[in-house]
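Example 3.2
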Amino acid sequence: MSPALAMARTTFTLPEELHAAGPPESRGLARDEIRLLVARTGGLENARFRDLARLLLPGDLLVVNTSMTLPAAVDGIRPDGRPVLVHFSAPVASGSYVVELRTGDGPIRDAGSGEVVYLHGGVRLEILGAHPDPTLEGSRLWRARVVVDGPLQEYLSRYGRPITYNYVDGTWPLADYQTIFARHRGSAEMPSAARPFTHELVGDLIARGVNIAPVLLHTGVSSLEVGEPPQEEPFEVPPSTAWLVNQTRAAGGLVIAVGTTVTRALETVAQINGTVVSQRGVTDLVLSSERPARTVDALITGWHAPQASHLSLLEAVAGAELVQQAYDGAIQGGYLWHEFGDSCLLLPRRRRTRVALVA
């Protein structure tokens, strides 16, 4: 079971008009034309995401997530005929899957062990018990067995659609939920911090001398309860990325995580001195003021809901004071929230000493 979560100090009230109801393309903007709030200890700067190259220095390192978003939402019917929406979150041991059952009003909490949900194509979803605590009554998440011919991902490709929430107007194709770095299928929801990147912007970054390295972390459903810690998630930090992170740190550059998923993956393999090792597995790491970041110096992120567990992670990287300043500035400046919204670059510090690398 995941460890308890220390509550974030950042507090705010999110106005309804700041919910991004659709992709920026639907607002007449290119992906990299969304707004970018740059938060430094010396103050805030309003920019566009396509300005990112000028905001970083040669030798800095961006680390991105190569996970691809699945069409993880499927319509179903409960035994009494009531409709239900099934969100497939993540595989667990013994061939079962963590799922969330929802209606338009939110999570369904009256399911129980032995219940069968009937899905499209003659597929059955058999509820095995609450997750992660099987003794919990009124759970939000459930462990289930999927009775399907062939791989589940192929079934989802045929019958599923992207997970969406009620602040999004209409439906949008799966391509709108993919980043340009997506290579490996597995995320229930988009690692959205990297969505604003375009191939042109990547070219600008490379020309600037900014390096880019991949990690992999498959995300589960993001609709966490207040105070609920992140779910266990599979990850991989390849040897080449571990080497680049360590070289960047030795040379005095910044290691900049593109998203909370990247932060979690890198910090899972971070040693006490901040160096990282190559590893794959499942992480239950919870970052907070009690376990601050060791490796990640800066963070590109979207805007998270009030009391979201992600706020503790942001504070673990940038400190509670800077995160609060950023969120206050974003609300005052009319920045848009959620996966199709605007972005933030948290730059709490710049390394002052660059150490010469030993050949």
